[in-house]
């Protein structure tokens, strides 16, 4: 699509071509902030090719530049080696307000990505575990990337790659067999499964420590250590005990039984899958997350043998003396890794290779995007190298959208061992409760049901925006005061500005209005808002090309600030003339629409009232 700023740039290019500047030498750039212009043409390359001094070329072009009828170019002037262009403010205002009004909820969307099929792998919680703040980053960033790519015109397939297979799940089954299945329901049942897994992992750790201790004493006995010789019988018993099948062996055995279709293992496995999906779907609805597919790792189990056989047949992997399938020397500085354990069990890597193979065959993507934390970078490097070596994705772009760690308000990393882990459902509940206190204080006249609805939108929006307002590679901190502030760079501030716009429009609707004269929108604060609205389509493009939701968040915040300046400098309902009042109302309504569109790309709702 060609929006107002696209046409402005196209008019500049057409004028430069008509003036004799070769197309390959035309580069349009944004001028420095202190330059009174909207776009600039640096003449250095063109001057060199044409054998002219850059300032002389800039001045010559300025003197002879022809601005066509209806052009968005308002002024052209030379400044040293730069040819600067300013927008025709009246035409820009008319064009932008028309675009926002006409396109409504799709203003800012584009068709530049048409023809691309992109699979986005995100969220990916583990079965039988609660979602925590570590999952929220992949979930929120992933859904926003999906929204933005769709707005860019791409066909996007979201895939929730559930962790429901492997040795970890074998440990869960072994724990249930050891302690019994939890009787709780919902989120409490997932917490109980986690507790069983933790207790069983402690048994595995104890077994490992026992083996280590037995090995130390056995060696001392072999070396003729006096104390060991005196304790010979005790050491023999210790070594025998350590050699017995242990809890880790049982977890591996249940993992293999699950892979081989054992009915008991499969029945428990399916119950935990159903429970986890039920709990997670409720959280996804609160976050505005809608994922197209939820193919668990188990879905790819029938494909794993072929993956291993093909890697072996193509010489990409080999089977070592213990029977494990090993991959090494794919790329410099890429560590060796396994594709199959020596006991025949498969690994994350095996299933991830099969996943790419399936996606390529069934979905035929041009790109596959993984929204995963920075600690997964090595795994994905190994995966991408392996699938290319085997030949599964030679003409498909594989992308890792990385994100950092979540810290608490004290700057401590969140972990179960520290006792400060924040789980997703309590986090969202607390966000709602804190937002409700703010809403009751500022909107006490609203009925309780509407206050609850607003609090949900504001609280959840605060959590989401806190994750998206900066580069995802940076770490984030749970700081409730900043997250819920009604001023500063926060979702509630932006939501409040939208609600304020809608309040003004509602109040104005009660009175008859004059025909808007948008030519009167000439105040610098009015023009600043217009330019911000014009920038949304380019923000969408940049965000799509960089997988960067923070670009949209920045646009929302900058637009809200520009709107605040407009309210300060330009009365809307008390404007000097009826025609100006109507024009400002049209600008306020367009800004509410554009901000709503931007927030929607971030999965943030804009309440009608606050």
Description of the structure:
α15 crosses α16 and α18 packs across α20. β6 and β7 form a beta hairpin. A four-stranded parallel sheet has the order 5-4-9-10, with helices on both faces. Strands 1-3-2 form a three-stranded antiparallel sheet. A three-stranded antiparallel sheet has the order 6-7-8. The chain contains 21 helices and twelve strands. The two termini are 34 Å apart. With 610 residues, it is of the alpha/beta class. Among the domains are: 84 residues, Gyrase A, domain 2 (2-Layer Sandwich), CATH 3.30.1360; 92 residues, no CATH class; 178 residues, Isoleucyl-tRNA Synthetase, Domain 1.
Terminal residue distance? 34 Å
| Count of extended strands | 12
Which homologous superfamily in CATH is the superfamily of the domain at 424-601? Isoleucyl-tRNA Synthetase, Domain 1
Counting helices, strands and paired strands, the structural category is alpha/beta
Radius of gyration, whole Å: 31 Å
- Provide the CATH top-level class of the domain at 424-601: Mainly Alpha
Q: In CATH terms, what is the fold-level topology of the domain at 424-601?
A: Isoleucyl-tRNA Synthetase, Domain 1
Strand order of the largest sheet: 5-4-9-10
């Amino acid at each position: 699509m060609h929006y107002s700023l696209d046409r402005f740039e196209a008019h500049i290019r057409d004028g430069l071509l008509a003036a004799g500047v070769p197309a390959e030498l035309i580069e349009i750039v944004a001028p420095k902030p202190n330059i009174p212009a909207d776009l600039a043409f640096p003449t250095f390359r063109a001057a060199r090719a044409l054998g002219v001094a850059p300032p002389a070329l800039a001045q010559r072009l300025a003197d002879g530049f022809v601005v066509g009828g209806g052009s968005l170019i308002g002024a052209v002037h030379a400044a040293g080696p730069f040819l600067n262009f300013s927008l025709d403010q009246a035409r820009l205002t008319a064009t932008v307000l028309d675009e926002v009004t006409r396109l409504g909820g799709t203003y800012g969307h584009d068709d530049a990505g048409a023809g691309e099929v992109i699979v986005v792998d995100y969220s990916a919680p583990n079965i039988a575990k609660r979602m925590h703040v570590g999952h929220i980053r992949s979930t929120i960033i992933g859904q926003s990337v999906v929204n933005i790519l769709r707005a860019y015109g791409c066909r996007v397939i979201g895939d929730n790659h559930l962790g429901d297979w492997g040795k970890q799940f074998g440990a869960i089954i072994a724990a249930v067999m050891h302690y019994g299945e939890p009787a709780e329901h919902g989120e409490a049942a997932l917490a109980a499964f986690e507790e069983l897994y933790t207790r069983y992992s402690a048994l595995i750790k104890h077994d490992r420590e026992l083996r280590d201790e037995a090995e130390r004493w056995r060696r001392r006995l072999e070396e003729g250590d006096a104390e060991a010789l005196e304790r010979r019988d005790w050491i023999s018993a210790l070594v025998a005990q350590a050699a017995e099948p242990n809890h880790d062996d049982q977890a591996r055995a249940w993992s293999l039984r699950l892979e081989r279709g054992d009915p008991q293992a499969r029945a428990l496995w399916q119950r935990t899958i159903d429970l986890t999906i039920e709990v997670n779907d409720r959280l996804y609805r609160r976050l505005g997350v809608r994922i197209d597919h939820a193919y668990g790792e188990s879905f790819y189990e029938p494909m794993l043998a072929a993956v291993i056989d093909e890697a072996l047949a193509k010489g990409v992997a080999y089977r070592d003396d213990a029977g494990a399938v090993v991959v090494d020397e794919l790329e410099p500085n890429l560590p060796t890794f396994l594709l199959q354990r020596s006991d025949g069990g498969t690994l994350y890597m095996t299933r991830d290779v099969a996943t790419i193979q399936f996606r390529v065959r069934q979905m035929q993507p041009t790109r596959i995007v993984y929204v995963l934390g920075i600690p997964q970078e090595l795994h994905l490097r190994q995966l991408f190298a392996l699938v290319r070596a085997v030949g599964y994705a030679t003409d498909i772009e594989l992308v890792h959208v990385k994100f950092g760690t979540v810290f608490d308000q004290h700057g401590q990393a969140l972990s179960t061992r520290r006792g400060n882990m924040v789980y997703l459902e309590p986090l969202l509940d607390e966000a709602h409760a804190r937002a409700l206190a703010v809403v009751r204080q500022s909107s006490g006249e609203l009925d309780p049901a509407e206050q609850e609805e607003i609090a949900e939108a504001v609280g959840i929006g605060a959590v989401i925006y806190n994750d998206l307002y900066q580069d995802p590679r940076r770490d984030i901190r749970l700081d409730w005061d900043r997250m819920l502030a009604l001023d500063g760079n926060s979702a509630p501030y932006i939501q409040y500005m939208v609600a304020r716009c809608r309040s003004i429009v509602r109040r104005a609707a009660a009175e008859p209005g004059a025909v808007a004269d948008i030519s009167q929108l000439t105040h610098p604060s009015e023009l600043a808002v217009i330019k911000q609205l014009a920038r949304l389509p380019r923000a969408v493009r940049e965000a799509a090309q960089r997988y960067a939701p923070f670009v949209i968040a920045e646009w929302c915040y900058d637009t809200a600030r520009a709107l605040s300046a407009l309210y300060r400098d330009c009365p809307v309902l008390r404007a000097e003339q009826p025609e100006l009042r109507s024009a400002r109302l049209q600008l306020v309504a367009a800004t509410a629409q554009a901000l709503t569109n931007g927030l929607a790309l971030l999965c943030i709702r804009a309440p009608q009232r606050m």
